[in-house]
Design a protein that fits this description.
Number of domains: 1
Radius of gyration: 16 Å
Largest sheet: 6 strands, mixed
Number of helices: 3
Distance between the termini: 33 Å
Helix content: 10-25%
Oligomer: single chain
Strand content: 35-45%
Length: about 160
């Protein structure tokens, strides 16, 4: 802990994510229930880009637990539509999936949403919370040179980011 006290928060987050990602490679079963969502706001292009990373087994089990018959791209799209919502000034944005990359341990989903100018962005992330009470969904929001991090969980599924 003394070593970490001199580091800035961005380096601490990167170190934390590195430790988690490398540690996961050694364990097929993982007691850690974690999702990572990176959002980049691009006002000049009038869009929001996002990358979502979750453990594949947790995502697929959560999709099936919600009543979907399979874990096809169509089922994943519907699951995401129900459990990941982005709003601009309380008006829902349409999330367009660009790519789904699924590996043995993790699934990475790339998406974007078109947006106009606004005052605040609201993100609601309920991914995998239907399976695990200890699920944590880490969210980073980047806008130009400004970056902020959040932790969403069972009793706090929503965040508001002032633009």
């Amino acid at each position: 802990m003394f070593i970490l006290s001199g580091m800035n928060s961005k380096i601490k987050i990167q170190l934390f994510l590195f430790i988690i990602s490398t540690g996961v490679l050694f364990f097929a079963f993982h007691p850690l229930h974690l999702g990572l969502l990176a959002i980049e706001i691009k006002p000049d292009e009038q869009k929001v880009e996002g990358v979502l990373k979750v453990f594949s087994d947790d995502l697929y089990n959560s999709v099936l637990y919600e009543g979907f018959q399979d874990t096809t791209a169509e089922s994943l799209n519907l699951y995401l539509k129900n459990n990941l919502k982005i709003s601009l000034d309380k008006e829902s944005l349409v999330i367009s999936i660009l790519k789904i990359s699924s590996e043995e341990l993790q699934t990475v989903i790339y998406f974007e949403s078109l947006m106009n100018k606004g005052e605040q962005l609201t993100i609601e992330n309920r991914l995998i919370l239907n399976l695990f009470d200890d699920q944590k969904n880490l969210v980073t929001i980047k806008q130009k040179s400004k970056e902020k991090g959040y932790i969403l969980k069972l009793n706090k599924t929503q965040l508001v980011y002032k633009l």
